[in-house]
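Repro:
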Amino acid sequence: LWIGTARGLDRFDRDRKQFVQYRIGSLNFPSDQRNSINQIQEDRLGQLWLATMNGLHRFNPRTGTFKSYFNDTANSASLSDNLVSQVHVDRSNILWVGTWYGGLNRFDPQTEKFTCYRHDAGDPKSLSADRVFSIHEDRSGALWIGVMGGGINKFDRKTQKFLHIQSQPAQKNT
């Protein structure tokens, strides 16, 4: 049982009936909110991906080690924002990373490069807003992105474009 907390990553050891704590990098101070984990996802290799208040982190449970990914303004293939809100591993083992201010990132574990999708006011088929709060893949493989202030976006993987779905307050649900 893995639990993300405000202080890092904990695993419940059922045999010993106690928690084992793992701290990301050198951030070992309980009051340091950069350890705060927003979401955990496991990939096909059994590695855990952690969405945190300070970057994206991959944890290997077999070795007990972390690899961290951060925004690097000099590298366009880096994570777009260090405040990571969501992480989703799709059925192709591609990682989708939602951020608070940097839009949606596609991370390829083979190349370790990020592709960023952001809102562009001049492109009606771009992400509708840059604050990503949810990522979901449906049964057909469609990717749905919930954003603050922009409704829901359906991502078309072939065209790399988004369909915007906004609520219509004047219409009643039937």
